Amino acid sequence: MNKIVSILMKFSLCFFVLLASVMSHAQDFKSVAPNLDKVQPDSIRAHIKYLADDKLRGRLPGTPGFQLAMDYVIDQYKRMGLEPAGENKGFLQTVKLRRARVDRDNTLATLINGETTKDLVFGDGFVLSPNFEETKIELTAPLVFVGYGVSEPELGYDDYAG
């Protein structure tokens, strides 16, 4: 019963916060409403279709696919009559890109338990995130396996137990 009351209270609180938010923006909606008829679902669909096309190859920054997407968006901005606000009175802004990766072939983790050692396999026994600042990192630290980190005592399951 207490859980139901708690859920209802949380729902009510969320509802009133949402209602207050909607009411505070009602005036904003009134100013936008006259332009809603200009929204063209087919046009939106066409933009999404182009930007999601395989020829853009994922649009990874710094790649030809990214350049195609960027050129397309700039062209659309110009067609809409938007004024550029980027560098040199253009639509672009310089952003430095950094790329980091973990060299799987030269990454090693060894589990040492007393006198027993075991080399762990990257992606199976351990995972790492690349560091954008260091080219090489060596670390010696204790390790505790906690499964998936799930603690659900009421279901009789706790990765942290023991």
Low-confidence stretches: none
Oligomeric category: single chain
**Averaged pLDDT:** 80
Order of helices and strands: HHHHEEEE
Strand portion: 5-15%
As laid out across the biggest beta sheet, the strand order is: 1-2
Biggest sheet details:
2 strands, antiparallel
What can you tell me about this protein's structure?
By secondary structure, this protein is mainly alpha-helical. It has helices spanning 2-24, 26-32, 41-51, 64-80; strands spanning 109-113, 116-120, 151-152, 157-158. The strands form 2 sheets. The protein has a two-stranded antiparallel ribbon. A two-stranded antiparallel ribbon has the order 3-4. Strand 1 (109-113) and strand 2 (116-120) form a beta hairpin. The radius of gyration is 27 Å and the shape is flat.
Name its key features.
162 residues, mainly alpha, two-stranded antiparallel ribbon, two-stranded antiparallel sheet, 4 helices, 36% helix
Quick overview:
The protein has 162 residues and is mainly α.
List the helices and strands and how they pair.
Layout: H1 2-24, H2 26-32, H3 41-51, H4 64-80, E1 109-113, E2 116-120, E3 151-152, E4 157-158
